Amino acid sequence: MIMEMTIKRKIRWNPIFKPVNECRKRYRVLKGSAGSGKSVNIAQDYIKKLSDPRYEGANLLVVRKVEETNRDSTFAELEAAINRMFGDYAPKVWRITRNPLQMECLITGNRIIFRGMSDARQREKVKSITFKRGKLTWIWVEEATELAEQDIDILDDRLRGELPNPNLYYQITLTFNPVSATHWIKGKYFDVVHPDIFTHHSTYLDNRFIDEAYHRRMMLRKERDPEGYRVYGLGEWGELGGLILTNYEVCDFDTSFPCFDRMTYGQDFGFNHANAILTVGFKDDEIFICDEIYVYEKDTSEVIQLAEQKGLSKKIIMYCDSAEPDRIKMWRQAGYRAYPVKKEPGSVKAQIDWLKQHKIYIHPRCVNTIKEIQQWKWKKDERTNTYVDEPVEFLDDAMAALRYSIEGMRRGPSVSILK
Predict the structure, then answer these.
(1) SS3 of 234, please?
(2) Which PANTHER family is this protein grouped with (predicted)?
(3) Higher pLDDT, 318 or 4
(4) Four-way CATH pick for 2-217: 3.40.190.290, 1.20.1600.10, 3.40.50.10470, 3.40.50.300
(5) How far apart are CA 43 and CA 401, in angstroms?
(6) Contacts for 315 with CB less than 8 Å, ≥ 6 apart
(7) What is the number of alpha carbons within 13 Å of residue 241 lying toward its C-beta?
(8) Cross-strand pairs, 313
(9) C-alpha 48: how far from its chain's center?
(10) What's the mean pLDDT when you consider all of the chain?
(11) How many alpha carbons lie under 13 Å from residue 1 in its C-beta half-sphere?
(12) Whether pLDDT at 32 is above 80
């Protein structure tokens, strides 16, 4: 009775997702623009079903590439869905714990757990998942483009065996904003027709709950970066042309300091846009992006605290954006070897040229760096339909940090920093 009264009164649905929520095919793949509402819808869909006695025995595994990122994304979306549906009754319907992250419906006994797939240890944890009641029936992979195809195959193998309830079915749901048209997800799910595959496309224009300020932001993006608008505004696959860096590979590798000839940090300051810090190693004329800090709306003292928690060494030089001398001063006062990078006419192009001449390896945990490098493009002259030697200044914070990180190698330590 609690569930029926509250769900009908509080929940809000976008009509475009009705076929998504009714779908029982094994693969439910949702591509869409930022702000389309797909993640909100999936969270509501799962909470509604897991709270329904007809689906007793169902359990949900929620996956991001990096396990910790679930806390502020998928976990927060599911918790918000619970509160919208049940209001003051929420504690009587769902038990929510934050350490570890998990949720349990007190009506059905169905559970939600959260995992990552960023290394071999986490993949093994996924393989050993069991539930006291019911089986693992549903998997939700958020930001699915962050995962490798083999990650999805490991998850897919978990959905097997006889189900205890005739109303249950196995299903893996992928939600993501599209990136390059060469991404494996496109070939595996969108370029084929198969009875077990359901694909869906949505944009912010389909979201009846989006605010006007977001619409204006997207119109500004459309004017300044038409190609970027196709991906982030219209949810289309990114074009192959115009990519700045293609000489990179995402793979596991040992990130410990002794493995490299030299290590540096690169930092691009931010608040409303991301503050990005990359840990970069150099070995045999190749570049290794080992780790990242990538946060929004954190002041300098908070970012320094994150760096200390992450164990950033104070012996390694940190190359920073020279436009923020006050922030650099705070980092130096905290004991870090932070220096501003020289900015000269043509320096950005020179940094890019240097990056193009060296193979770049990116550790899978650097999900934001991977996302940026997949869409970092040259600006396009719409009149001549040609690209110009100037990067699009959007979603490029990790790329700026990468450019700064190489200065000690590109120019030599004696001239690469302002003392």
Answers:
(1) coil
(2) PBSX PHAGE TERMINASE LARGE SUBUNIT, PTHR39184
(3) 318
(4) 3.40.50.300
(5) 34
(6) 337
(7) 8
(8) none
(9) 25
(10) 90
(11) 0
(12) yes
